[in-house]
Amino acid sequence: MAELTIDDLKGFLMRAVGEDESIDLSGDILDTQLTDLGFDSLAVIATTSSLEQHFQIKLEDADASNIETPRDYLDIFNRELAQAA
Fold it and tell me: Distance of CA 69 to CAs 34, 37, 72, 83, 85, Å?
């Protein structure tokens, strides 16, 4: 079964913002607001879209709009991946 890990997520998040050296994803970031980590709404949309393409799933709009922290990404995507298996 496919699973989204925090390390995988960090890679997707960083690709969404390119070479922005002001973004630091070290330490315990699971419950930190994405905006506090330096990600604007466009970066969140880009990350979500990339993850959907990678895992070949489509989130419901309500789920996608509720993503505010890295933990939200992990919970929502891993729930969807488990249901798809």
Answer: 5, 9, 5, 22, 25
The DSSP 8-state label assigned to residue 19 in this structure reads S
What's the domain count of the chain? 1
- List, for residues 8-62, the tens digit of each pLDDT value: 999 999 999 987 788 999 999 999 999 999 999 999 999 999 999 999 999 999 9
Q: Is residue 77 part of a domain?
A: yes
pTM, two decimals, is 0.91
Residue 23 maps to a domain: no
Query: Does residue 58 belong to any structural domain of this protein?
Result: yes
Residue with tokens 């959907």: 52
